[in-house]
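Dear colleague,

Following up on yesterday's call, I've attached the two folding results inline so they're easy to grep. Please treat them as preliminary; we haven't cross-checked anything against experimental data yet. The first protein's sequence and structure tokens come first.
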Amino acid sequence: MKDLAIKKLYYSISEVSGMTGVKPYVLRYWESEFLELRPAKNRAGKRIYKHSDIELIELIKKLLYTERFTIEGAKRQVQDSRHVTAHIEIESDGKRRERLIRELKQELRVILELLENDKQSTA
């Protein structure tokens, strides 16, 4: 049977701790060390984590516990991975923009051709 559970937009620190296996006090410590890990807070001041926060936590956990990076080394890896991701997003936006410009040019050519044909038929 398929998992029909609705995914939440935000998770509490205890939910994230249960999902990732990282204790809440460690998550709070990582927030002080990794600038990229900044969960929002609700009106009550409780941390609320998005899916992207949880993915980052999983990356940090892998770097520290599996690949045995130091905190400083893991920080550099996280910053580098964020830089690469941002570069890819910028690049894909540029390609999308180029495609849109090509499509607009083609549409303008069609409009120009229609106007020229209309001008010739009325002359």
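Below is the second protein, in the same order (sequence, then structure):
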Amino acid sequence: MANTSDIRNGLCINYNGDIYSVVEFLHVKPGKGNAFVRTKLKSLTTGKVIENTFPAGHKIDDVRVERRKFQYLYTDEGGFHFMDNETYDQVALDEAMIDSPQFLKEGSEIEILFHAEKNTPLTAEMPSNIILEVTYTEPGVRGDTATNVTKPATVETGAEVKVPIFINQGDKIKVDTRTGAYLERVKA
């Protein structure tokens, strides 16, 4: 058992019969009244984000989790298949357990959170950004650069990303996996 002073980003807790990860927290000490901790919690089973306020000193049931690096192999009707880089064991996950499955490409590494006592996968976290090749995009029209003009581009995983007009087919780009936004062009 822990209490509210132990709350930090990434902490996994058992709350209302579900396992949640702390996304944001803020310790508040008002001038009048008791201190409290305002949190945003993300369910590791459904992905739903809720807001909750804990009074200061409140006991919370923390869950011990392990982060393990896995390599993405392939997708079929059984789900997304990953291989442990150390033991070569394979695990299959549902699409709902993965943060941004549209950006997964074969061979990419992700972290999977496991419940330490039950040894069951809880969720898969993509790296914050990934480098992908543009497989299709319309050519940019000269003279359309008065403002930040974007165009749709399809990357090698099949996902669509809005890119600046100077990006061409065959270019490699860095994409933010949390928002799906274009970050920069990568030199080959």
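For the second protein, one point worth flagging: Residues 4 and 57 are 5 Å apart (CA to CA).

Best wishes,
A.L.
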